[in-house]
Write a structure and sequence with these properties.
mainly alpha, about 60% helix, globular
Length: about 180
């Protein structure tokens, strides 16, 4: 009985805020032939495994940050992930909080607002337009000056909770996805 209560309390803690929809990503954010859920898990577990992997590469760091913000809700809400451990889902929610703190992103900012700004910055950097990338961070959800945000992304520090959460999610994902596209 106690195990059932513990499980229910953990599941209740992982529920998304009522009335807030999870962030949506455009197709192909993590590769042409990869669905966003699997791509987000792969990108984030790779990137948060070691800070050197994204050093001086803010686009890869941005994609990892987007992944954590997106997956925090996606893993909890999408029935595709019903078999994933509630502990892994809770870890991802904590990782989002910790990643947002490092970047000065408001903890209560809607995920879609955060994801949209980060996508705009990544696309601008890929196009060689740093000024437009900085404008993407000139947003009420981002509490630091835009150049500081970009500087942190270019040298993203080790965030233990993100490393643990993304690796646990990756460990619970079949190596070739789950055969579902939602």
């Amino acid at each position: 009985m106690w195990n059932a209560l513990l499980c229910l309390s953990i599941i209740g803690c992982t529920a998304a805020p009522s009335g807030e929809n999870p962030a949506q990503l455009p197709a192909g954010v993590y590769g042409v032939y990869q669905d966003n859920d699997i791509g987000a898990i792969n990108q984030s577990s790779w990137a948060f495994g070691s800070p050197q992997r994204t050093s001086k590469n803010p686009v890869d760091a941005i994609k990892a940050v987007i992944a954590v913000d997106y997956l925090a809700d996606e893993l909890t809400i999408n029935p595709r992930w019903v078999t994933m451990s509630p502990f892994a889902k809770q870890e991802m929610l904590q990782a989002r909080v910790d990643v947002r703190r490092v970047l000065g992103i408001a903890l209560d900012a809607p995920s879609q607002v955060v994801v949209n700004a980060l996508l705009r910055a990544a696309w601008s950097l890929q196009a060689g337009n740093q000024e437009e990338a900085l404008r993407a961070f000139d947003n009420p959800a981002f509490g630091m000056p835009p150049p500081r945000t970009l500087q942190i992304l270019a040298d993203l520090p080790y965030i233990q909770s993100a490393n643990i959460a993304t690796n646990d999610a990756a460990a619970q994902t079949p190596s070739h996805g789950d055969g579902q596209r939602n």
